[in-house]
Amino acid sequence: MSTEERITLKHGAGGTAMVELIEEVFAAAYGDANAPRDDSARLDLTGPLAFTTDSFVVDPIFFPGGDIGRLAVAGTVNDLLAVGARPVALSASFIIEEGLPVRDLVTVAQSMAKTAAEAEVRIVTGDTKVVARGSADKVFITTSGVGCVLRDGISGAAAKPGDAIILTGSIGDHGAAVMLAREKLLDTDAISSDTAPLNDIVLSLINAECEIHTMRDPTRGGIGAALNEIAKQSAVGIELEERAIIVKPPVAAACEALGIDPLYVANEGKMLVIVSAADAQRSLDIIRQQRWGAEASIIGRVTSNHPGQVRIRTSIGTTRVVSPPSGELLPRIC
Amino acid sequence: MSTEERITLKHGAGGTAMVELIEEVFAAAYGDANAPRDDSARLDLTGPLAFTTDSFVVDPIFFPGGDIGRLAVAGTVNDLLAVGARPVALSASFIIEEGLPVRDLVTVAQSMAKTAAEAEVRIVTGDTKVVARGSADKVFITTSGVGCVLRDGISGAAAKPGDAIILTGSIGDHGAAVMLAREKLLDTDAISSDTAPLNDIVLSLINAECEIHTMRDPTRGGIGAALNEIAKQSAVGIELEERAIIVKPPVAAACEALGIDPLYVANEGKMLVIVSAADAQRSLDIIRQQRWGAEASIIGRVTSNHPGQVRIRTSIGTTRVVSPPSGELLPRIC
């Protein structure tokens, strides 16, 4: 098919037009030419396994620092890593709005292939649906992932008082980049999404046998939502140091202009890593040596005080509660 | 949350409103109260595994004989069964249009729970996105599935000349039911979707060690598309007997009124089973004893003639080619 074409309903109808789309766009980008074209892929894995899924509806589908394809692969890979699993295989299911340029779909598929290679994961199965113009917005992608659990017991429910909380870099980059791109306010290349698969960081920590209790990638709702979830799941308190949390100046300025708190803005290439105090410095050193971890820092501690609550000590020395966001935030950020 | 509410963007924003939706609708219907609320679920499985995914965009979301939830579970379960795997775990990811009544979502989630119980499969992980009104149509569900491969080598590429082709029941019921419901033409209860998980049929055949070469559930594109794919993958010819293929009279009448050939209409509770000639009758007897297989019949044979092509002998004795559909078919049928 030509990249000058647009997607039509026939590309989702189960016939030769759909087969052509799958072979020439998806399989061409990331398929295995020798794999049988069956309803399910076969994987030779031994348990225990991790299994996760995420739908991506980001608007716009192309933004500084990434696109919906890179996001879909990195997001699912990071969810597997967060439970201490090595990502192995992904599925990718597309819901496409009639009229989407095939060229855009090719770009997205190639971005998925590139990101999957970066994350050393294979996209092994998929599905394609096409809906009439106005019944979806350009393209939605759902990726599911299967991984091998390398370390048991890493969970949002396993943080312990005394643990250190490491954040692998700055916050708010993804959310700010998408918001500004959507509003066509992005006249700077200073703001760019952080979308990335974090295999190096997580697998290095596991290889080094660092005593990790909890990991979570702070996506929708930002570190504010993620840390509140962990505080609740683990029935512990969390104390953050504002000055240890990096917000790049253009991101801080954008958040201020948009009236949003960067603590609640989505990240797509960051991990919160909660480790025993004894392993905190060693873990930090390992993370900083990795490609996406150079700016990692210890942003706070887990405490037995105020269980279920997240507090932050501001740069002027006062302390405030970081409430869980209720939800009136940025839509379609991921 | 109240079932009188409607979904708003905050239900997809990663905050407390989203947690409430997940806990009170999805976890209440099919969740495991003891499972940790982490980014990935853990599964204790040993390989080889089957892995599959499907997005469901059916319109309307409720139709005679099923709904989008039952369809999403049965569709993914049947794709695992089709490669000879026992379905174990599903993920369920929702893209919801702002404004959807919570009541509808509860009904869909409960239908998924019921169908999952019928298929002896657990829904272990999920995701929820909400998009603005007009950016999606009510709700789209993507289910992925993991299963244990019980029998190796069952593939669309493994059909052999001489094999018998068994179809587990009538054709066109699902597509006709959805089309008529969409056009509000359904004033009869004589047409109803066949949506069902086919565990009993497939697992009984595997237990009985029937020599199955290929299985495929003929969904979008119907048996016409599925058999053409198999003919191509296996490089064999296929010869069908029209009189052995059951089309219920109201479905036949509906297809005629809509100007569509039932051979190309979607089924969601049927399986094509291609077995060695020696095991054909025994397999048919086993299928007919199962809940969804009472009307099974041998509808044709695999041949070494005309490889890649499907032919049908009509009831008046002539033979015509069943071409692969190009795609101008029924949109949003699954």
Describe the structure.
2 copies of one chain form a homodimer. Chain A is α+β, with helices and mostly antiparallel strands and 334 residues long. The first copy, chain A, folds into 2 domains: 9-149, 60s Ribosomal Protein L30, Chain: A (2-Layer Sandwich); 164-321, PurM-like C-terminal domain (Phosphoribosyl-aminoimidazole Synthetase, Chain A, domain 2, Alpha-Beta Complex). Chain A is built from 8 helices and 14 strands. Chain A has helices spanning 16-30, 68-81, 102-118, 173-182, 199-207, 222-234, 249-258, 280-288; strands at residues 41-43, 49-56, 62-63, 66-67, 85-97, 122-131, 139-149, 164-167, 212-216, 237-241, 272-275, 297-303, 310-313, 319-321. In chain A, the strands form 3 sheets. A 7-stranded mixed beta sheet of chain A has the order 9-11-8-12-10-13-14. In chain A, strands 2-7-5-6 form a 4-stranded mixed beta sheet. In chain A, helix 1 (16-30) runs parallel beside helix 3 and helix 2 (68-81) packs parallel to helix 3. The relative contact order of chain A is 0.17. Chains A and B meet through helix 1, strand 1, strand 2, helix 2 and strand 5 of A and helix 1, strand 1, strand 2, helix 2 and strand 5 of B. Strand 1 of chain A pairs antiparallel with strand 2 (49-56) of chain B.
